[in-house]
Amino acid sequence: WPLYPTCLLVMLWASLSLYVDNMSITRRIVVEMGEMEGEKEEDRDGGKGEKLLKRFKRGWMWNQFFLQEEYTGSDKQYIGKLQSDMDRGDGTLKYILSGDGAGDIFTIDENNGDLHANKRLDREDKAFYTLRATVVNKNTGIKLEPETEFIVKLHDINDNEPIFTKELYTVSVPERSNMGTSVTQVTATDADDSMYGNSAKLRYSISQGHPYFSVEPDTGIIRTALGPGEMDREKREHYQVVIEAKDMAGQRGGLTGTTTVNITLTDVNDNPPRFSQSIYQFSVPESMKAGTPVGRIKAVDKDLGKNAEMFYNVVGGDGLDMFDVITDKDSQEGIITVGKPLDYEKTRSYTLEIQVQNTQTLDTRFLGYLPTKDMATVRIGIEDVDEPPLFERASYMMEVKEDAAVGTAVGSVRAMDPDGYNSPVRYSIDRRTDLDRLFNVHSGNGSVFITRPLDREEAAWHNISVIATEFNKPLQTSRGPVYIRLLDVNDNAPTFASFYETFVCEKTKAGQKIQTVSAVDADDPAGGHKFFFSLATEGAYRGNFTVRDNGDNTAGVLTRRSSYSRLHKSVYLVPVVITDGDFPMQSSTGTLTVRVCTCDREGNMELCNAEAQTSSAGLSTGALVAILLCVIILLMIIVLFAALKKQKKKEPLIISKEDVRDNVVSYNDEGGGEEDTQAFDIGALRNPEAIEESKQRRDIIPSDTLYPPLRQTVIPSRDNADVRDFINQRVQDNDNNPTAPPYDSLATYAYEGTGSVAESLSSLGSASSEGDQDYNYLSDWGPRFRKLADMYGAEDSDCDS
């Protein structure tokens, strides 16, 4: 009822506006009197001279009509009236309408020009229509006035509600945001005409979401309505806000549309981690190794994601150096681990002070006086474990001279039972570390001694393991590594560094150096090697050569004569004595081989004795083997080539092995007559006695069991044999030969039919009764079977004879 006066006023206003528009645009056009007089004057002068042409004014003057959309009346909606000044009301004129919707949506009374709308129109579908009207004579159909175009526009009414671009918005805003922080913007549209009235003028309001959010009426921007202290994600994370858009500028009677906005508060780092309890207690056996986890502690952070990441560290307590704490990145727990070996007999409990804090920077605006870190106390009790013997040292280093006598003590090890029982310990050597059994250990006192002679030159270090075992508990054992270093003793004489051999020219000069020698020693003296070289005191060679010590562990061998004779003595063996400088002094004698050779003027060797020449100028064993292999390979290639040349490749008469049925054999050679001496031997035709009998065929496998030997035809001996008779005789032999082409072969047929007189033609199927069959009927089958008739008929005649 309160809306009734308003609706009545709206309908009255629309009717008045429509009436005024129609009255304003429906006009009658009156022809000026001057024009009518001119027309009468033209009629009077029509027979006297030329016809005077005058321009008439257009018969209609309108531009557009207006029509209200969404008409709900039962009758046709009257738009207006079209009337021509030529209409005298006598019914001779006819109004014709064309254009958009003419005849369907719009109709015109052809007699009086009344224009109506037949259908209910929607401005949102089509805002205006373009029509054309003209007037014709009913009797003649002639246009009396030119066609005129006009427009029918639809008046908009508020019949569309606002529609948001999204039915659901999902947005987020950081928690602890200041009041008035922009969250998002919503937008709605109205299909009504925004240029006409307030039908499309929208206002936004919030119908759900107070008092946390607000919306700007004109822009649709949603903002926070509370301060940072109220927008706390840890208290409430999700909000659902309903926004309403209303047309008619938000006035009463306007249409509305709504949308939902889901707002989530995102996390900020405004909460420090806190331990769930202040004291933690754990126990661990003393046998735990370093790095073994002892237990887990956990702090709680109300934030999310990276803001909840934390790390733990030990900041105090008597176990600061004995334990460590690491952070589990997945569970954000602190894992306490053993840092150093534990000993129940020394310390039975430890206390740790562990601190936790965020890895990210903490927003302290809302913490006040609360600390940003948290502390917890961890008490760890050590449990006693029956432990194996413990060596006093982690490893032992011992030294002994390599010439020490068997039984000499190298050193000793000591282990004890760490438990309170103080059980006796027995020692032994792990023989897997002393395979040569060079050492042993006293089982009672742990003394390590030598059991076999040692040699530093074979192995300078020996690494063995000593096992300590409790007497009362043999399973309780431990190992201690012992590293034994052998000290060097001068027990090896120096020797030549390599085998030395040189030559001397027959003509030389005294004091000429012919070779430089050096020495090596297996010993390793502390001050380094020092060698002395000299010539042996005995022998006739002292008059031929001498040795000069260079003082740098090398020596030079020099000549003492100016000439030598290769024929008199071709090889000299010079003994050189090498002595070291250590105690006890060691020495040895090395032999230098000197060959006498013929040299040129520059001292280059030209010719030595036979032994020297062979060794210097001859080929090495490897080169001789390579040359021999090359010769053998070359001979094998020659033999293989010769064998291939001798081998003749015989081509079978039948090319394909699979094509062995009723074959047509292609010889690919028609021959060249008697002039072609390459095709066949004409002498064989002239001399039949020279023909080889029983020559094997190459296109079939010969078989003596299936076929009897061929009948040999005796040709009378005569000087001039007739070639024609010979050929005829050979043809007859081949006709009587069952292995000559075409010959029977195994042929498989899927279906041969029934009632065949010939039955099977295979020789395999008829071999057993071949002699009893009569082949004379083949002669009655026509020329196609004449060959078979001649072949098998001839065999019957031969058998009968």
TrEMBL record:
Superkingdom of source: Eukaryota
GO cellular component assignments: adherens junction; catenin complex
Any GO BP annotation: morphogenesis of an epithelium
Keyword line: Calcium, Cell adhesion, Cell membrane, Cleavage on pair of basic residues, Glycoprotein, Membrane, Metal-binding, Repeat, Signal, Transmembrane, Transmembrane helix
Localization annotation: Cell membrane
Biological role: Cadherins are calcium-dependent cell adhesion proteins. They preferentially interact with themselves in a homophilic manner in connecting cells; cadherins may thus contribute to the sorting of heterogeneous cell types.
Protein name: Cadherin-10
Species for this entry: Oncorhynchus kisutch
Organism lineage string: Eukaryota, Metazoa, Chordata, Craniata, Vertebrata
Gene: cdh6
